[in-house]
Amino acid sequence: MAIISTPVTELFGISHPVILAGMSGAAGPELAAAVSNAGTPVLVIDRGLGVIGGVNYTPRILRQQIRALKDGLADKSLPFGVDLLIPQVGGNARKTNYDYTKGKLGELLEVIIEEKASLFCFTKPAFRRGEGGGHTGDIPASILIPACVDAVKGHKSPLTGKPVYVVGAGAVYDGRGLAANLMWGAEAVWVGTRFVASVEAGAAQIHKDTIVKAGYEDAVTTLIFSGRPLRVYRTPYVDDWNNNRQAEIKELTRKGLLPHDVEMDKHPEKSVAARTWLMGRVSALIHEVLHAKVIVDNMVRDAAAQLQRGNKYLTSKAKL
């Protein structure tokens, strides 16, 4: 298999510029370890970067999850990351924002440092791409990624002393997405929905099956679950809120209340119909649940083919 080397692969000592999005629940120890391994278990020739989704974990649980990840690594020196959700609270932030760490951010950071995570991630709201699952924005990746690359040009990281690198995200499910992001100037990709539909993902089987069956109009955004745009699978419950109860959503979120929580307090019998399946628009192009290793291998192989294919368009003179 061809090796795609970028500054990000060199920085983390990984073979491929593929990073697992730190999705709450889905990106557990097994999946994170599988992505970090992502190759021959003995030699660990090919590897990406696995990231645990640490949202709503206590410091004790986070440490347990990290150690479970380490137990699954074929080589204990392999890098891994941790992703926390740290929205702005108070001031001019959305009134529905709250501290997901419950005042334990300092302790969580201590765990991350003590366990020697190679990467710590948190969301920068201004840089959310438009096609992704979970918390998202409305700017397409094809516009946002080049804009971010231009914005960081000439800047250096205070941590590494090296240039600031951009990791592309949103609608990456195969090698074409990886190749496109590299051409836009990103140095790696952050992959979510494609890995939810993996054997090792901690997501429920129904979540994986829902991604596989989703169509092009089935991934929609709503404010009802978190007060911020969240892309989820379209259900009658979500449609009812989005199409018939917009005034109620606006009023509740203005007060700092989450519409879904209010609804569950009043109508707990709706809990099954209200189940939430986070996914990006790319779910319409995912047709089977695969092992994480297969996903990484296919993505890198196909990206290399796309990059090599591009070379055929380069000539010393125009063909008339």
From TrEMBL:
Xref: SUPFAM superfamilies: Inosine monophosphate dehydrogenase (IMPDH)
GO MF terms held by the record: dioxygenase activity; nitronate monooxygenase activity
Keyword Oxidoreductase listed: yes
Keywords of this entry: Dioxygenase, Flavoprotein, FMN, Oxidoreductase
InterPro entries xref list: Aldolase_TIM, NMO
Pfam families (UniProt xref): NMO (PF03060)
Keyword Disulfide bond: no
Protein name, entry field: 2-nitropropane dioxygenase
Lineage, opening ranks: Eukaryota, Fungi, Dikarya, Basidiomycota, Agaricomycotina
